[in-house]
Amino acid sequence: MPTYKITLAYDGTDYIGWQRQATGTSIQGLLEDALREFGDGDIAVSGAGRTDAGVHALAQVASFTLVRDLPTDAVVRALNAKLPEAVRVTSAAVVPASFHARFDARAKTYRYRLWNDEVLPPFERRYAWHVPGALDLDAMRRAATLIEGEHDFAAFQSAGSDVATSVRRVATSRIAECDPHSSLLLYEVTADGFLRHMVRAIVGSLVEIGRGRQPPEWIARVVASRDRSAAGRTAPALGLFLISVDYGGARPAEP
Amino acid sequence: MPTYKITLAYDGTDYIGWQRQATGTSIQGLLEDALREFGDGDIAVSGAGRTDAGVHALAQVASFTLVRDLPTDAVVRALNAKLPEAVRVTSAAVVPASFHARFDARAKTYRYRLWNDEVLPPFERRYAWHVPGALDLDAMRRAATLIEGEHDFAAFQSAGSDVATSVRRVATSRIAECDPHSSLLLYEVTADGFLRHMVRAIVGSLVEIGRGRQPPEWIARVVASRDRSAAGRTAPALGLFLISVDYGGARPAEP
Measured on CA atoms in the order A77, A82, A88, A94, is the torsion positive or negative? Predict the structure, then answer.
């Protein structure tokens, strides 16, 4: 009964998100359906990050246990043969039976892509939030770092969450250095866990600051308020990518 | 009656190509429909490259004449407001009434994208031909340069063309230098004109050479044969991008 850890990339545009639900096509559901064709009966798949509808992944991690002992490259090939091209298994490894993709994750890193120019290139329309107009990048950079550390992030949590605590430790939060001639703006955040819509609410707040509607320090006051209505709007799902999951020991993969 | 030259980027996935036809949605048709809403009646649009179904553009050039004198930024904004997000006008300029996007083009450059790895990333599935397995890049590089110069390219022309001559002058033909750690392989070709499916037939032949089924010199023999059945298969449309059109004077835009 080997347990496998797989790494996945997916274009979330056409899916309801990671988690299987009563209706709609989920990434978890696609994997479980593909594994059923292996002939070992129903196989439950756990994922590291429960990405929302429309959110993408460069390196999501999932785990499951098979009855048969299959070589890892056969697992990769057989899953990719059954999955749609929008979902690809990029690697597989055999791990101890105790491994759980979600509970064992020490940290996850998300990247949010924004396009800051008048015209959004057609090839970015599903993968970047179009934010035209001047943005104060220095203010956004300063604000981004202000949420690093352990905080109660209730102000950045959407309704409908059922988590025990909204305290999370953000290891790094920054506007990535990009080519200054590029219109692409990247926000990257690593934390031990994320609340529902947390990254998107942070990005919506950073854009408020970038537009000069709020000073950088405002984001610290929003955190302190623990009031969702204090934060900026939730940025659209299409700009968000789960880019790595860290299980300790090895460094997170460079996507 | 000002004449406008516009530059366009488009994701060709869902379209029948540049040229308006009896059925299906074309890029030319989308532009002409958008211009009709300007209230100047039917406006004919000429395009520099008649890209096929599924072929993309980073910088296609088109021209048309309006009755009213509109500022160029108003033309860009009004067209983009009416066009789908998959088609974007990136710039506009007023040009002499004699300008014709197709007949005045001195050279066009196409790029073909190939993904040379076992797994095709989901974000490349509409924009790169998936060619797994070992490829001899040095052989492909040498073969690519062998088609530079003026030749009769009848061997790389699909049936159904009605051009007066199949002689074209290829200024440069090369496998672009890429990050050696990347699986992305780029082929770029600049010529004074292209025959139907010419770039895709060249790429199909280069892949035959990369796979070791033919030596690099074979491509010169294919050119000399002027026989379509001598060349490799036509590579799929989805990897092909029209990246610049040169009208002399100014350098082609870096896409």
Answer: negative
Average pLDDT over residues B105-132: 97
Contacts of B140 (CB under 8 A, 6+ apart): B175, B206, B207, B209, B210, B216
3-state secondary structure of A119: coil
Alpha helices in chain B (DSSP H): 27-36, 72-82, 137-145, 198-210, 218-225
Distance from CA of B165 to the nearest CA of A (A): 35
Closest Cα partner for B132 from B115, B108, B149? Answer: B115
CA-based angle A171:A176:A179, to the nearest 5? 165
- How many other CB atoms are there within 10 angstroms of residue A188's CB atom? 18
pLDDT reading at B161 higher than 50 = yes
Nearest CA to B51 out of B43, B42, B62 is that of B62
Q: Is the pLDDT of residue B107 over 90?
A: yes
Q: Kindly report the pTM of this predicted structure.
A: 0.92
The verdict on a CB contact (< 8 Å) between A123 and B9 is: yes
- Secondary structure of A35-91 in HEC code, one letter for each residue: HHCCCCCCCCCEECCCCECCCEEEEEEEEEECCCCCCHHHHHHHHHHHCCCCEEEEE
| Both tokens assigned to B56 | 């993309």
Give the separation between CA A4 and CA A228, rounded to whole angstroms: 38
Distance from CA of A8 to the nearest CA of B (A): 10
Three-state DSSP state, B223: helix
